[in-house]
Amino acid sequence: MRRSYGGTGLSEEQRQICDLARQFARDVLRPGAEARDEHEDRFDRDPVDRLGELGFLGMLIPEQYDGLGLDMLTYLFALEEIAWGDASVAVSMSVHNSLPTQTLLRHGSEEQKERWLKPMARGELLGAFSLSEAGSGSDAGSLLAQATRDGDGWIVTGEKLWVTNGASADVALLMVRTDSPDDRRGTRGVGAFLVPTELAGWVPGKKERKMGLRGSETVAVSLEELRLGPEHLIGEAGRGFSYALEALEGGRLGIAAQAIGIAEAALDHARDYAGEREQFGRPIKDFQGIQFKLADMATRLEAARGLLYRAAQAYEADEPRKRKLSSMAKLFASEMATWVTRQAVQVYGGYGYSREYPVERLFRDAKVTEIYEGTSEIHRLIISRELYLERGADE
Question: Does the predicted model carry a pTM greater than 0.90?
Answer without folding.
Answer: yes
